[in-house]
Design brief:
The chain is α/β, with parallel strands linked by helices. The chain folds into 2 domains: 167 residues, NAD(P)-binding Rossmann-like Domain (Rossmann fold); 228 residues, Rossmann fold. It contains 16 helices and 14 strands. The strands form 2 sheets. The protein has a 7-stranded parallel β-sheet with strand order 3-2-1-4-5-6-7, with helices on both faces. A 7-stranded parallel β-sheet has the order 10-9-8-11-12-13-14, with helices on both faces. The radius of gyration is 22 Å and the shape is globular. It starts with a helix and ends in an 8-residue tail after the last strand. The structure holds nicotinamide-adenine-dinucleotide. Nicotinamide-adenine-dinucleotide (NAD) binds next to helix 7, strand 9 and helix 13.
Length: 450
Amino acid sequence: MNDPYLTFVNSQFGRTLARAVGLPQPAPLERWQPGEQGAIGGPLLVGGGPLSAEVATIGKALAPLALGFQHQALPLEQWQPDSSPPIKAVVFDASGLRCTAELSALPQFFQPLMRHLASNARVLILGRLPDPASDSEGYISQRALEGFSRSLAKELRDGGTAQLLYIDEGAEPQLEGALRFFLSAKSAYISGQVLHLRPTTHAPDDWVRPLAGRRALVTGAARGIGAAIAETLARDGAKLLLVDLPGAKADLDALAQRLGGQSLALDIASDDAPATLVSALGEGLDILVHNAGITRDKTVANLSPDLWAPVIAINLEAPRLITEALFAAGTLRNDARVVLLGSVSAIGGNRGQANYAASKAGLVALAHALAPRLGERGIGISVVAPGFIETQMTDQMPFALREAGRRMNVLGQGGQPQDVAEAVAWLAQPVGGALSGQVLRVCGHSYLGA
Ligand code: NAD
């Protein structure tokens, strides 16, 4: 699936024409390439409050150059706007801002940087939420960071992204995993997100193969996003069981063979699917990815029962019943990770997708509902909500809708299956427990439901 407009406006002629007539110019996004080990492809700038010392220590190992800004006490060379190379990544620790007057530290820090960012720059703001009952001013000051970071994300150019991460007391060991993801090419299509890191189990020992020795099940793996998830989990060391419909068996078998995994032809919405999976996974499961999903788009006026029922059955009921069964049977091991594929349609609603949006909104609720119970055994459950991703599913959309879907986000383009797969693979790590019950959107900071 390609995007001819993106290719055109990034050609020499297309760039000149787009500038002359004022057409939008989405930037090519840098994505993780095989063999790439360094998390950050250029200078990292660190500043702000109490967490910045830890960020500086981690950052020195992740970036070719780590620099301090407005923070002389950090063990880093200070940034010199006129002589330093363009900045690839910025981390500002705003967790120490405790009153509204202190919020002015945000523009003071960022204003001087904005014209010195490299293309595809990554910005991460860290916060810490106090209890609103005992510290209301601290709480509102920290929540104000959401508006700042989301607006900053809309002002970045050239493929730049920005996120806000609230770090709970005790969640600091998850900081390295978060920096490795949000400051690298792995988060190319994620921007404007706000997440809460909570304390969870230890971090991976091996950052190159963080899922080594872990067993993963991916549904709907024969093509599209599911196939990309399978590739990425295998790259990160997981052993795979791949599931798809009997009609997709040839593609499924070929992928499983190439990745050294196993395949199982199964309709996940069939009555016996949960029991079949419990028996196929006798030895246990560490990573469960509910990716299989369908659309049957029609406006509510034309939504017949045969377009409603399968969408709810496959997208929502099957993940619920399978997760419950694998949990009840003890197949899901302690500290397992469950990732549900949602959609931004569920968050913003989408004309002609009431059935699909209902099923995906139900998945968000499923993560909320199960997180406490699964959490008692260290199991994390979260949702990855893609926006417009270039797959066969979106290739079938009418031209005008497809073009609108591609452009209605701050990055001005559709995402690739790899973008979603990177997010799933990241949540399959221990950090997935720190984000249990939450939704991570992979949508280029979509205007839909923003
Ligand atoms: P796709 O249609 O290309 O692939 C879906 C796969 O699921 C297919 O291989 C299909 O055979 C399989 N499948 C369908 N019903 C099944 C069943 N009953 N049992 C087993 N397998 C079944 O879709 P995609 O674009 O790769 O999307 C993957 C997931 O991401 C879906 O849940 C989708 O809703 C979600 N999503 C996609 C986009 C997008 O833009 N492509 C956006 C938001 C969310």
